[in-house]
């Protein structure tokens, strides 16, 4: 319970601290531009290792269904700009690749 309470306090303080710090001046434009890239960077850092290291070893072969489905997902996302289409097509690709292997 103390760990959860400690995490809540730290989370609150970081949010409240930035609110107090930028209350008078607002967030600088350079920082706001930089912060827009944080979600993409975090998501990339979570996804790329699972695509390139599916079994704990680096795998850039056609036998890596995770990587192939990821490539399909990137292509569909770029072309359609629709999250549901990307999710549906890439899941179908993953199921098909796993079924074929």
Describe the fold and architecture:
The protein is mainly α and 101 residues long. The protein has two domains: 36 residues; 63 residues, no CATH class. It is built from five helices and no strands. Helix 4 runs antiparallel to helix 5. The longest helix is centred in the first third of the chain and has 20 residues. The model has no long low-confidence stretch (mean pLDDT 93).
Topology:
Elements: H1 2-21, H2 29-35, H3 38-52, H4 65-80, H5 83-100
Helix pairs in contact: 4-5
Shape: elongated
- The DSSP helix count reads 5
What's the oligomerization state? single chain
Rg, alpha carbons? 20 Å
Please state roughly what percent of the residues sit in beta strands, choosing from under 5%, 5-15%, 15-25%, 25-35%, 35-45% or over 45%.
under 5%
Number of strands: 0
| Estimated helix fraction | over 70%
Q: What is the count of structural domains?
A: 2
Low-confidence stretches: none
Distance between the termini: 46 Å
Mean pLDDT over the full residue set = 93
Largest beta sheet, briefly? none
Helix/strand-derived category reads mainly alpha
N-to-C SSE series?
HHHHH
Compact description:
With 101 residues, the protein is mostly helical.
Give short descriptive properties of this protein.
mainly alpha; 75% helix; 101 residues; 0% strand; elongated
